[in-house]
Amino acid sequence: MKLSQLPVSTGLGLRAPHVEAVLASRPDVAWWEVHSENYFGGGAPLASLLAIRRDYPLSLHGVGLGLGRLGELDARHLAQLRELVQRVEPAAVSEHLAWNQHAGRYYNDLLPVPRVDGVIAHLAGRIAQVQDLLQRPLLIENVSAYVGFAGEVIGEGELMAELHRRTGCGLLVDLNNFHVNALNLGVDPLAEVAALPAAAVAEIHVAGFEYFDGTAVDTHGAAVSAEVLALLDAALRQWGPQPVLLERDSNLGEFAELYQEYLQLALHVRRLEGNTLEVTA
Amino acid sequence: MSYATAITAFAALLDDESAVPAGLLHAERMRHYRANCRINRVAALGNTFATVEALVGADFFAAMARVYVDATPATSANLHALGADFPDFIAGFAPASDLLYLADVARLDWSCWLGFLADDAEAEPPAALAGFAPDTLESLTLTLHPALQLAQSAHWPLADLLAMHQGGATADINAGGQALLVLRADWQQIAPARFAMYLALQQGAPVLAALEAALAVDDSAPVGEWLGWLFASGAVIAITEANGEQA
């Protein structure tokens, strides 16, 4: 089965404050991605999403499953996700390599998985469980990290490649997160990109980050940095054209502003792909 | 270090700044995770409790929500599912103790939120009830749509406050208690007798008992009309006979 049905072009993250403007103006966006949890339940939010789905390819991006948590995944969360996937029939379904629960307490953030002994078996089992439930490939995404773990046995890119090999899942590569981890923890983002086989990559995320007290924090609240755009260029040269998504979650502003940023990114990607084709022709 | 040990060490430090940062690098940056969790939850509460936020202002709301979040471990990964006990917290929040109505307004906001996000469900058509003889009403129960929510305050004008928040006239806080129903994004003030009837139905009382609950409040209550409204509005999703079979 194909890892996703996303168009190989640039898409845009869609958040609730912009839904009305998008439905009214039907902007020229190749595909949209929404957070799955925002459409658990029914009523107007889901109806709006289905209306958008009629006109555009749609990606469902989970932020709350917590694939890396200890113990079982949340049964209600899984049931709600399956219900949503059945209603929306999205072009892609993705989740983060993160955890969010321990000893009965939830943490509403994307916490990094320790890449220590046991990590591969733990994550591969959960990914396989979700793929069996949804009857489709899951795309897994690397997260940003501020705190590191001692005694790690595998790099993030290597871990993602191994999880693809074991489970057949796709890879959603967040280049901003690699960059943030380079700033905070000293990883080499180009080495992480190089560790990921082109055949496993199904989607790329770019976004902006902000500094707080000297730490780069993945807020999705600023423009994409020049370093991340350069990383995108390198990644697309390695993997060939991919679905690329612009994410914005905080400092959201008016849709028209974000749309301009989207158009600039889409143009950047098209120019790059044009240049790449010239080079290889 | 095993996977479970590493996660447990991380969680311990997240919960308690003074915990030993076993096996963690740059543990001093844990505050960014604490801040993210707090910011995400406070922002979600502002979305859910919009009338409360409008009444007290964004700064007071954020400070109050922060105290609540810090004192209340999250029980779900889904931010939309958090805040059921925020109204009770507000009732005991000393800096808001002058705003006696605030907890009831928070309960209203939570009802609106549940109604807005409730799962979709197929409604029984208005004709569905016509097949039952009047003498079966004592054994029929209705399952109301989860998008129908009820709110009532004994002392405060909830409907006037909600209307004010949505651009209506300035509410008179001393106008007395009000009841209202919420159906998705729509709402209307209802008479206390109608509130009693719908509440009884929502709690599983037979139709006849629910009608009697309304008539006990107001013996001239138009209960047939109110029952018809539920069906006409798509607010009934199942009719069940006392023997447990779905009609």
From TrEMBL, chain A:
Task: Give the protein name, as stated in the record.
Answer: DUF692 domain-containing protein
Name the InterPro entries for this protein: MbnB/TglH/ChrH, Xyl_isomerase-like_sf
Under the heading NCBIfam families, the entry gives: PRK05409.1
Q: Where are the transmembrane segments?
A: none
The organism's superkingdom is given as Bacteria
The uppermost taxa in this organism's lineage are: Bacteria, Pseudomonadati, Pseudomonadota, Betaproteobacteria, Neisseriales
PANTHER family on file: UPF0276 PROTEIN HI_1600 (PTHR42194)
Looking at the Swiss-Prot or TrEMBL record, what is one Pfam family this protein matches? MbnB_TglH_ChrH
From TrEMBL, chain B:
Task: Tell me the superkingdom of the source.
Answer: Bacteria
Q: Does the entry feature the keyword DNA-binding, yes or no?
A: yes
The family database entries (Pfam families) matched by this protein are listed as: DUF2063
Q: Which residues form the Putative DNA-binding domain?
A: 9-90
- An example Gene Ontology molecular-function term: DNA binding
Protein's UniProt keywords contain DNA-binding: yes
Q: What is this protein called?
A: Putative DNA-binding domain-containing protein
Taxonomy of the source species: Bacteria, Pseudomonadati, Pseudomonadota, Betaproteobacteria, Neisseriales
